[in-house]
Design a protein that fits this description.
- By secondary structure, the chain is α/β, with parallel strands linked by helices.
- The protein has five helices and seven strands.
- It has a seven-stranded mixed sheet with strand order 3-2-1-4-5-7-6, sandwiched between helices.
- The longest helix has 14 residues, at about 110-125.
- It is globular.
- The model has no long low-confidence stretch (mean pLDDT about 95).
- The protein binds S-adenosylmethionine (SAM).
Length: about 190
């Protein structure tokens, strides 16, 4: 049964199969990169971005521990995704905010996040999805959340479906996950 906290995992399982291409736009500690690598198998390819070398080192270690060898780790901003000839990814994952256990002052910023989402939509496979998990609250993330959500609202509803998954009855400010898919048929 679908557990709402695993909505991104649900989409990974539904959309990805052996041989696919996928992108982790925020590698961090490598948890999402590992999930994507497993979902696309040995014949697939995962591109994982992070601006922190320590994050990519952590990701590389995690992949090695799990015998995974189908990822390309890229020390660069996800806003430069168009510089890496990534062909039609079936999934692009954004897990916004700062590296858990790392320097909390280094975190995603709305302008580069929006640029990266825009570029990801251009290269996304027609049967693909983008997942954006947004952490926000008292200390950080609120400005980014507002700008990113405002931007997502402007996406043409005839071309894209944007759904927001919220933990409606959880206290404080639980993360939101936004899923964007491309529409292939007629949308009213
Ligand atoms: C919440 S963490 C990601 C957690 C990760 N998905 C995991 O499974 O462990 C956010 C990451 O985004 C990275 N980041 C911040 N700005 C970035 C950018 N412009 N491009 C790529 N990564 C960025 C941070 O360095 C941090 O490691």
């Amino acid at each position: 049964m679908l557990q709402p906290q695993n909505i991104t995992e649900y989409f990974i399982n539904e959309f990805l199969s052996d041989g696919d291409c996928a992108v982790d736009a925020t590698a961090g500690n490598g948890n999402d990169t590992l999930k994507l690598c497993c979902a696309v198998g040995n014949t697939g390819k995962v591109y994982a971005f992070d601006i922190q070398e320590s994050a990519l080192t952590e990701t590389e270690t995690k992949l090695k521990e799990n015998g995974i060898d189908n990822a390309k780790l890229i020390l660069d901003s996800h806003s430069n995704i168009d510089c890496y000839s990534i062909q039609k990814p079936k999934a692009v994952l954004f897990n916004l905010g700062y590296l858990p256990g790392g320097d909390h002052t280094i975190q995603t910023k709305y302008n580069t996040t929006i640029e990266a989402v825009e570029k990801s939509l251009e290269i996304l496979d027609n049967n693909g999805f983008i997942s954006i998990t947004i952490y926000y609250g008292k200390n950080s993330g609120t400005e980014e959340k507002e700008h990113v959500m405002d931007y997502l609202k402007t996406l043409d509803h005839k071309r894209y479906t944007v759904t927001v998954h919220d933990f409606y009855n959880r206290p404080n400010t639980p993360p939101l996950t936004v899923i964007v898919t491309k529409n292939s048929g007629t949308v009213i």
